[in-house]
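Encode chain A's predicted structure.
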Amino acid sequence: MKTRLTDLAIFGGPPAFAEPLHVGRPALGDRRALLARLEAVLDRGWLTNDGPCVRELEQRLAARLGVRHCVAICNGTTALQIAARACDLAGEVIVPAFTFIATAHALTWLGLTPVFADVDPRTGTLDPAAVEALITPYTTGIVGVHLWGRACDVERLAALARRHRLALLFDAAHAFGCSHRGRAIGGFGDAEVFSFHATKLFHTLEGGAITTNDDALAARARLLRNFGFAGYDRVVSLGINGKLHEVAAAVGLALLERFDDLVAVNRRNYHRYRAALADVPGLTLLAYDEQERSTYPYIVVRVDAAAAGVGRDTLLQILHAEGVLARRYFFPGCHRMAPYAARPPRRPLPVTERLAAEVLVLPTGPAIDPAAIDTIAALLRLAVAHGPQLARRLGAAATAAAVR
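Encoded structure for chain A:
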């Protein structure tokens, strides 16, 4: 373990990790089971167009999530676009500014206007009061984002949507396998949208899904993902190619067999981080509700620069130099990214601004072992213990570099 500032890689010491540690490194199911499924796909010669692996995956996911319908899609962004079309969204749609940019981009690509609302300071999810203040005659929908495996204020958002006759969708990209008030995330609102990107704990390499209990919405989503075809050569609506292929579905099916084991690893990692960082001043680890089902998908630390004596971005520099590829989520906020930065948000977004400046996400998943977690925690502890001195040294180094 490093004990002095001069040991840090940013000051010339050897990196703590020779091979970089990523926030989310893809996991796979049992290799033999996966290869057997892939052999079957190749033997059938049915590679896409609603094949047997896709249908099996949809059925198993619908059962796991307790919903009537699961519509597999080629990726989460396209899934959100198809869900928005299926709900006939138009004009303005209210979304959190503190989310991955794809939430906003998916809507903008359809010609919709994302209107950015602030988030709850405790959960980081969409603040219903902020949403209500932004509703206009042009508003047709709300997209809540379940953040880091923790649900939005589903009940208040649903009541708000009913009162104003708005569609309600949830971006559940962070929340597969998690629950809200004992009920699996997947059946809330008009529909929920999942991402099965390779960095997620459950993935299909690339992929996504729409889940819903609305029969008509599911039927429309199936039309929209297949060019509007209703039968062999009969097109009844506008549509695109949003289909998931058989190889991706086979990866997902193999991974489902191992999913609970992966969750157990994430749970172990979370509790290890929690113990290792418990008494570090200015660092607060996002807590998961042990009464809910969770996949513990992200290790999220909020950095209070005043209390820690060092800012989030400085800690990020230090970790990156050590081979720990921690990340800032969702810096700097959607409202400050192109093309949205060209127009100011309708209301101030103070919580979003604060979170974007404080959040640091650390590596987890099956590629991270307890020893690596202890090393990462020790690096953070060392930086905080020497915060002012660290800031001076980095400032002097930056000044010297500028002069050169």
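Residues 5-25+260-326+363-403 form a domain with the Aspartate Aminotransferase, domain 1 fold (CATH 3.90.1150.10).
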